[in-house]
Design goal:
With 896 residues, the chain is mainly beta. Helix content is 6%, strand content 58%. The protein is elongated.
């Protein structure tokens, strides 16, 4: 019969006691306790009874010659907190309950040798007691164990393990550890332990940690490694439009993801309409991503949270790299200013699309006799960080980020060359040329768009005690966007200017945040960890302010958009308790309380979080979780491409914040050697107070406020994420599948009925593999296949007779998002060739050059429908729009 109390292991000696001696002769050094008991059983014939897991990871040393069993056991368990009792033929072991046994805490930081970067998720294990700890986002660990002999083993996959050897623990001790990278494992698997630990040991569902090497191993368009495009290969994460760095997580929209740079939010993270993200891989250390259950620390978005940690810089020596690619270049350098005290890190990335397009535009303008084309685009990212260590317990840093996109485009008639400006009157005066050689009119159109982010942060980290770690941060973050549109029209006869019209439009959109926050980690007991903190943010929103200027001959008119400037104050508090009941049960419960004040009115919300992990069998875990999240700001987008004209706006006095409730279940299994991890996660999410444009928002008068253009609705999503990961060996990677339903309902849309969301990608498959061929060559491949995006197609289209038969300005539709685009699939390849001074990276995007359908456009074919009256109309048709063929790329990175 099965015993009612689970987890009890009994070892029975079948030999007769009479054949064995009660004295022990045995010599072992740092050997597993369970294997030592096998020798003791042979010599004594005793049965050893103890709870499962009591001796896990416990190493013992014995040096005995004809020594009584009691003395051997006492010596073995000295300082471990384990006691024994001999009764008849049984030896019973148990955890010592005597509170008089002193416990002390070993704490410190685990960093990478050579550059002193924190190793997140490194394990620190005491081989004597079997107790362990995992480093946090700053590389800090805290381990409380009984007084006595200690033997620590520190591990991080991809690095050589560190063994302290035996030492006596008689008081609290700070121990900082550096690990050297192993040459026996490839960089791609450096982070394996972190994610395996997240899956098997923590309560987190749907969390992931990525290193710099993980991101660089992903094949992407133009060879530009990108953290967002790496995350697009995860189950439950959709990319949106092909090639773009968008994220639609578990049926959410792009504005429902919170992107953070060193714990500070960013509002605009895309370059070139989303083709690249603003995160320069060369400046990154690692990334934390949460998509299903959320730590209590995070709130403010409904779908996911991504925290990007930048490099601190080496305290020992200078390192750097220079990358030269087809579309951009990057440079980074880091090192000590004062050795072992002060370090710096600097990285810059710039595209050169502006340089690449100069020849093409010059050729086009040479060929075209009618007009000149003007175009220039470039983006720039700058990351800088300065760290100073006052002591082993105290350090401070300042971080700066600047990202900018610059776009300039326009056209002008070539006949403009016949005229020169008379700046006194503001319109051109004709150059004296024969009238037959002059045109009587011309147009000049120009547009300039600049957008980006600025972040400035200062922080202080302090180890208050061996059990308490804290970080205080102050920051300023700014998102800015400016558009200037300029158009001139001239009508000229001979030497006279008959009319001159000039139209300009200046548009501004910006957000300024001032942030102060404090975060703390406290190890109350070895089984109980507390995270708590608070933050204050002052928001300043200018959602969209435009100035229209019309100049007609010598008269002008100005019109201003009716958009107010908003100021808001936000306060957040959080508390979470991570508690373990033995090895088989662990729970993490927390609360996040937020207060948002705007326009003299205050709104508050409480977001509870709870997740539970049960381990009924070794290497098998079951999890369940619930999370509520609240969002006070949202983005209004008029297209599926990320544009700087998209507006971030706060809730106003008469609006409620967006909320989402999510429940999730997960099951995880890992092979005994931890090479493979299998996971399946299911979730259901319901959302309220969602915001979107109404179908007829463009008909509202220009003087209307933006709130009059919006509808308030609800949403729901559900799905299953399945993933198999291989984390060790020359071949690594994962296979993932997700099943998703995502729906929306707005009273002003689809007759108030439920309809599928645009990125309701029902089925999604991802395969990502990396193969380390030898010390010089690494190759990678990723394949993506998913159900197409949803779009709305009209059932009827007709032309306005006043505008001609080629205009489809009138249409009729019954349902929203009634058409699904064809199945999407793509294969990307990459190869890395290491050299003495650096490495070459070759990549092929869309290797078999299947041009996927990204949209549908309305057009007419060559035929006509002739009515009995003799009138005719063209045959209207829908045509698939395909884009992005095969794109090869190459880059070289020089390391120094």
């Amino acid at each position: 019969m099965k015993r009612k109390i689970a987890g009890v292991a009994i070892t029975i000696a079948f030999a007769s006691m009479s054949l064995h001696s009660q004295n022990i002769t045995l010599t072992v050094n740092n050997k597993d306790a369970e294997s030592v008991f096998a020798d003791l059983m042979q010599q004594t014939g005793k049965n050893f009874i103890y709870p499962a897991g009591l001796l896990k990871h416990l190493k013992v040393s014995v040096k005995a010659k004809d020594t009584p069993l009691t003395e051997v056991l006492s010596d073995m368990f000295k300082g471990t907190g384990i006691s024994y009792k001999i009764k008849g033929n049984n030896v019973t072991l148990r955890r010592e309950q005597n509170t008089s046994i002193s416990k002390y805490t070993i704490s410190g930081f685990v960093k990478e040798a050579g550059n002193d970067e924190a190793l997140v998720g490194a394990t620190v294990l005491d081989l004597k007691s079997g107790k362990g700890a995992v480093t946090n986002a700053n590389g800090f660990y805290s381990l409380t164990i009984p007084e006595g002999e200690v033997d620590l083993k520190v591990q991080y996959v991809g690095f050589d393990p560190y063994l302290t050897g035996n030492f006596a623990l008689k008081k609290n001790r700070q121990l900082n550890i550096t690990l050297a990278m192993s040459h026996e494992l490839e960089e791609v698997t450096v982070n394996a332990t972190v994610n395996n630990t997240k899956a098997m040991l923590t309560t987190e569902i749907g969390s992931l940690n990525l290193t710099n090497a993980d991101i660089k191993a992903t094949p992407v368009i133009f060879g530009e490694s990108d953290v967002v495009k790496t995350l697009q290969l995860e189950p439950g994460v959709s990319a949106g439009i092909e090639g773009m760095a968008g994220m639609y997580v578990h049926g959410g929209d792009t504005d429902e993801n919170l992107y953070m740079l060193d714990n500070i939010p960013l509002y605009q993270i895309n370059h070139f309409g989303g083709l690249f993200s603003a995160f320069n891989t060369e400046a990154l250390r690692n990334v934390d991503f949460y998509k299903t259950t959320f730590p209590a620390k995070y709130d403010g978005r409904l779908a996911s949270f991504m925290d990007v940690h930048t490099k601190d810089g080496s305290l020992k020596e200078h390192h750097g790299s220079f990358r030269l690619g087809l579309t951009s270049g990057a440079f980074d350098i880091n090192g000590p200013i004062i050795k072992d005290k002060t370090s710096y890190s600097f990285a810059i990335r710039r595209s050169w699309y502006d340089l690449l397009t100069i020849p093409a535009i010059a050729i086009a303008n040479k060929i075209n006799d009618s007009y000149n084309t003007h175009f220039r685009y470039a983006f720039t990212d700058i990351n800088a960080k300065l760290n100073h260590h006052f002591s082993d317990r105290s350090s401070a840093y300042v971080m700066f980020y600047y990202g900018e996109d610059y776009l300039y485009a326009g056209e002008d008639d070539k006949d403009k060359e016949n005229y020169e400006y008379d700046y006194g009157f503001g319109y051109p005066k004709p150059i004296q040329k024969p009238e037959s050689e002059r045109d009587n009119s011309y147009t000049d159109t120009r547009a300039k768009l600049i957008w980006g982010n600025v972040v400035a942060t200062a922080g202080w980290k302090y180890v208050f005690s061996p059990k308490l770690f804290g970080e205080v941060t102050g920051a300023f973050t700014r998102y800015f966007s400016s558009l200037r549109n300029h158009k001139e029209d001239y009508d000229i006869t001979g030497d006279n200017v008959n009319s001159f019209t000039k139209t300009t439009y200046n548009h501004k959109n910006n957000i300024n945040d001032v942030i102060l926050r404090a975060d703390f980690n406290c190890l109350l007991t070895p089984e109980n960890k507390l995270d708590f903190g608070a933050s204050y943010t002052h928001h300043s929103f200018l959602p969209s302010r435009g100035v229209h200027t019309l100049t007609k001959d010598n008269e002008w008119i100005k019109a201003y958009d009716n958009v107010p400037h908003y100021h808001a104050n936000e306060v957040n508090f959080y508390l979470s308790d991570d508690y373990s009941l033995g090895n088989w049960l662990r729970a993490d419960a927390g609360l996040h309380y937020s207060i948002f004040n705007i326009g003299g009115k205050t709104k508050s919300n409480l977001s509870p979080r709870i997740s539970i992990r049960v381990t009924p069998l070794h290497n098998f875990a079951l999890k369940a979780g619930y999370s509520k999240s609240v969002q006070y700001v949202h983005q209004l987008a008029e297209s599926s491409i990320s544009l700087p004209t998209d507006q971030w706006i706060p809730i106003t006095c008469d609006q409620k914040p967006q909320t989402a409730d999510k429940i999730a279940l997960g099951a995880y299994w890992s092979t005994p050697d931890r090479q493979y991890t299998f996971s399946i996660e299911g979730y259901y999410k319901w959302m309220h107070n969602l915001v979107d444009y109404t179908d007829d928002y463009y008909l509202t008068p220009p003087s209307s406020t933006w709130t009059e253009k919006l509808g308030i609705g609800e949403g729901k999503s559900k799905g299953i994420d399945f993933k198999v990961t291989k984390e060790f060996g020359n071949i690594t990677g994962h296979i993932a599948y997700s099943l998703l339903w995502a729906d929306r309902r707005f009273p002003e849309k689809n007759k108030g009925e439920w309809y599928p969301a645009r990125f309701d990608n029902r089925h999604k498959i991802n395969v990502a593999l990396s193969w380390k061929i030898n010390d010089k060559w690494d190759v990678g491949a990723s394949w993506t296949g998913m159900s197409g995006n949803r779009i709305t197609l009209p059932l009827q289209c007709w032309s306005d007779p006043l505008l001609g038969p080629w205009h489809f300005d009138m249409d009729y539709q019954e349902t929203t998002n009634n058409y699904r685009l064809p199945f999407y699939h793509r294969l990307d390849l990459s190869a890395t060739r290491k050299t003495k001074r650096g490495y070459w990276t070759f990549s092929v995007y869309n290797a078999y050059s299947y041009m996927n359908v990204i949209a549908v456009r309305r057009d007419s074919d060559t035929g006509y429908y002739i009515y009995p009256s003799g009138d005719y109309n063209p045959n209207n048709v829908f045509q698939h729009v395909r884009a992005i063929p095969i794109i090869p790329s190459v880059s070289y990175t020089w390391l120094f």
